[in-house]
């Protein structure tokens, strides 16, 4: 098992009896254990909410009286004992899936590189699905006892917070984070000085220090160039996630790839497997080759050697997600490398030569594909699309033989599951359901959950969402400067008893947030039907440089503000992991309508399914594999169509299914207790079929068996 290098300070002024809360605050294990969360919110729930679930701030600010009351409350202390006994047991990791299944082979370490990690709302170093997947991967690796260490960047300002102006324009707010308030610790040497690594560019060197974040048993190391000795420009390298300035962007990726390898070496890790989560980290291949060349291994041999234990996951067929750089930028940032590798510039560029209308490029996914033996896409259809997309790299192979496999994404179940659902599962799925998350036999017991209990939890979660939206609106309103129409747009008229559809994701144009508005008249007549009203809640950020994405938000927001919709269309600002939890737990239907086949996998619908929310989606990515005709609904067909035709036929299908199937199933066929039995049956079918398969439990095991173990031989 990997070990943490740093000791968390326990500098909180806490009563002795509950001192270890300070320790818990420094391990994200608490974020996926509802009883551990309770140890904080039970002391002062309002403060806990106000501080956005930040335990460090909470322990510093909580009142003396409240904390003493907890330390003297018998029930609190019992909970405390139980949580810490679980925590200690967990960290000891005596018996895990990994040690059971693989014994010594499980001692091989995997290094997992990612530009973003979505672990918790208080640590905003993620922008969307890619980061959340990386965060879920670490949590699951921890649960399975897999020796894994994460590498990423520590962003001084994190990703932006979103405000929507009265006219629907997205405003990006970037605020410096205070790292003292986050559960990150600087890695120090014996003398107490910062441990630093250096990354060399042709004209300069850049230093970075290293932060450690604990994710259960897994350490995550985050590089940070905001050091006095760096130039102001280099200090900015880790200021923000995804600079659009390509000069900064490439230097960021050099820092992640090259700096990441150097950091691991410096910290004394010797990984057997190197996993690149998307192409951003692909420069790690060059650094690994350079190490061998420096030891006297010829370049070709070095490449062959490192390729064996590199693993690369491609996450999107969309060009914006596949970084490539003009060659002048490569000259400017990497020209020192070809000498060190003992090759010419031409040979160097050949490692990743791509082509765009505007000229030749150096492509990060090509570099990663060429220098990894393990390669995968993130759903079956995405595998097919990727093999077609990259076939030119294997000109002698037929498209189906292009060596890119697929491992469909999953989500970390304990992170996304509502506490009340968890209690239901504890009661009806058998004691060890959490240990057997990916076992379909566990989930076949979902049919035994009594309809009224399941429905009561569903209604509770929807009320929670509605009241959360109301409370946020109230807070904004009280700050002043909020137009009444914005209050309505942000949910002031939400009704917790109405059929509610959620649509939340990044606002990239291919996700077609406006598809549901294709025929506005028809939509309005559907949502305003007497006795059968419907609400739709939208949320999502656009990348600050994505003008079409921001225009799309504006288009949605302007419609949301119209009086005719009766406040039943809502846009919630600042989609993050906290809001995501409320939404995937609280709505009735999770809608997703990307233009196929651009959604490589998608994961939010999986989070929804485990909470008893039904999916209503295009047959793209994961849903194409999950949909069985009775566990949710499909939009459009399982076919590839041209964009224009697809937009039209998907919109028609969306209205049709909504009108003829979804709305009637929700409102009719209710029993004497007013429970829609057909609906509840569908929820159980969704729990039974979706939850075991689309969990990171299944996913990380697949990575181990199909990619990590072969790579570590
Ligand atoms: C899960 C999640 C995503 C990814 O959702 P998709 O279905 O892939 O669009 C994006 N953002 C947040 C905050 C999430 O929690």
If you had to describe this structure to a student in words, what would you say it looks like?
By secondary structure, the protein is α/β, with parallel strands linked by helices. It folds into 3 domains: 16-92, no CATH class; 97-409 and 701-711, 3-Layer(aba) Sandwich (Rossmann fold), CATH 3.40.50.2000; 451-693, Rossmann fold (3-Layer(aba) Sandwich), CATH 3.40.50.2000. The chain contains 29 helices and 21 strands. Strands 1, 2, 5, 6, 7, 8, 9, 10, 14 and 15 form a 10-stranded mixed beta sheet that branches. A 6-stranded parallel beta sheet has the order 18-17-16-19-20-21, sandwiched between helices. Helix 20 (451-479) crosses helix 24 (577-586) and helix 24 (577-586) crosses helix 25. The longest helix has 29 residues, at 451-479. It is globular. The mean pLDDT is 96. Bound molecules: pyridoxal-5'-phosphate. Pyridoxal-5'-phosphate binds at residues 128-129, 132, 505, 575-577, 580, 602-604, 607.
**In what range is the share of β-strand residues?**
5-15%
Helix segment count?
29
Low-confidence runs: none
Give the domain tally: 3
Helix fraction bin? 40-55%
Using the CA coordinates, give the radius of gyration: 25 Å
Largest sheet: 10 strands, mixed
Classified in CATH, the superfamily of the largest domain is: Glycogen Phosphorylase B
- CATH top level of the largest domain is Alpha Beta
A few lines on this structure:
The chain is of the alpha/beta class. It contains 29 helices and 21 strands. The longest helix has 29 residues, at 451-479.
